[in-house]
C-alpha cells in the first residue's frame, strides 16, 4: 500500500478493511519517513507494519 492511500484510509470516516499478514487491522498512524504504519489488531495489540505488507480488501 502506498503512503497516500494509507493516510486516506486512516482519515476516512468509513470502515475500510485492511489486513496485515492476513489478519484484519486498523491504521492508527502513518510514518512517511520510514514507510511504516502503526496498526492495531482487533484485540488491541499494536505493532509497526511495513506499508508494503498492508492490503486493502
Write structural notes for this entry:
With 57 residues, the chain is an alpha+beta fold. It has one domain (3-56): Roll (SH3 type barrels). It is built from 1 helix and 5 strands, in the order αβββββ. It has one helix spanning 3-11, and strands at residues 18-20, 23-31, 36-41, 46-50, 54-56. It has a 5-stranded antiparallel beta sheet. β3 and β4 form a beta hairpin.
Number of helices: 1
Query: If strands are numbered along the chain, what order do they take across the biggest sheet?
Result: 4-3-2-1-5
Oligomer: single chain
Give the strand tally. Answer: 5
- Average pLDDT, rounded to a whole number, is 97
CATH architectural type? Roll
The major sheet is characterized as: 5 strands, antiparallel
From the N-terminal CA to the C-terminal CA, the straight-line distance is: 11 Å
Task: Please indicate the percent range of residues in DSSP E strands (runs of 2 or more).
Answer: over 45%
Radius of gyration: 10 Å
Quick take:
The protein has 1 helix and 5 strands; from the N terminus they run αβββββ.
Features:
single chain, 57 residues, alpha+beta, SH3 type barrels, five-stranded antiparallel beta sheet, 5 strands, globular
Amino acid at each position: 500500500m502506498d503512503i497516500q492511500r494509507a493516510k486516506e484510509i486512516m482519515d476516512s470516516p468509513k470502515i475500510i478493511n485492511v489486513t496485515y499478514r492476513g489478519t484484519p487491522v486498523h491504521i492508527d498512524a502513518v510514518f512517511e519517513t520510514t514507510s511504516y504504519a502503526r496498526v492495531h489488531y482487533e484485540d488491541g495489540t499494536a505493532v509497526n507494519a511495513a506499508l508494503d505488507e498492508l492490503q486493502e480488501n
